[in-house]
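About this split. The held-out portion is used to measure sequence recovery: a designer receives only the structure tokens and must propose an amino acid at every position. Recovery is the fraction of positions where the proposal matches the reference. Here is one held-out target exactly as it appears in the evaluation file.
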């Protein structure tokens, strides 16, 4: 789903009911928010279903699943609630969630939370890279990246090409001293690039 809600059932006949439950109305979390502590089974009594449902159609969807026990596992990534895994034990199975079930569900939640956290960090890094590229490429001032050992240009922006009249390919075949042949290099402002760890610099 667009906002991250999705559902499935091992029984194809009930799979549609699960999906409709996730999509129904204001799309609130099925069976309510997760517990604040460790995952703990909740008995799906008629009173619980009555309270959790906000209209008759919603209540019918709950009953179609014939839930007896519900286990909600919070997914916490970067110290925040990133999602919930909700598992339902139907009446025909005739059992509740065992300690082993709860442990496995917790491990599943931990792994899912790690994946969500990793994805979040990836998107943050990509956005930071996008902002850096925009700052570099679109900057009206000439900017370039060069190797601090060989002084060879690694990258130049369009403003540098316009200012000095070299093509990008010509720039990348040169080093910083060729651009400033009369300088001893001390007048060229240099900032170390964190991405290359002292292997490159930009100005």
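Reference sequence for scoring:
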């Amino acid at each position: 789903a667009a906002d991250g809600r999705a559902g499935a059932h091992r029984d194809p006949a009930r799979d549609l009911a699960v999906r409709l439950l996730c999509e129904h109305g204001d799309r609130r979390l099925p069976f309510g928010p997760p517990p604040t502590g460790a995952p703990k089974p909740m008995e799906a009594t008629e009173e619980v279903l009555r309270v959790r449902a906000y209209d008759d159609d919603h209540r019918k969807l709950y009953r179609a699943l014939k839930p007896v026990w519900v286990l909600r596992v919070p997914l916490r990534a970067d110290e925040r609630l990133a999602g919930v895994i909700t598992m339902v034990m139907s009446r025909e199975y005739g059992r509740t969630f065992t300690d082993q079930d709860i442990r496995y569900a917790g491990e599943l939640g931990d792994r899912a939370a790690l994946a969500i956290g990793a994805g979040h960090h990836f998107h943050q890094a990509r956005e930071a890279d996008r902002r850096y590229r925009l700052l570099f490429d679109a900057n009206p001032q000439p900017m370039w990246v060069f190797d601090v050992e060989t002084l060879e240009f690694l990258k130049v922006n369009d403003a540098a090409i316009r200012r000095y009249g070299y093509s990008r390919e010509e720039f990348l075949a040169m080093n910083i001293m060729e651009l400033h042949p009369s300088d001893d290099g001390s007048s060229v402002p240099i900032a170390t690039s964190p991405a290359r760890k002292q292997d490159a610099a930009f100005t």
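Annotator remark: The two ends are 45 Å apart (CA to CA).
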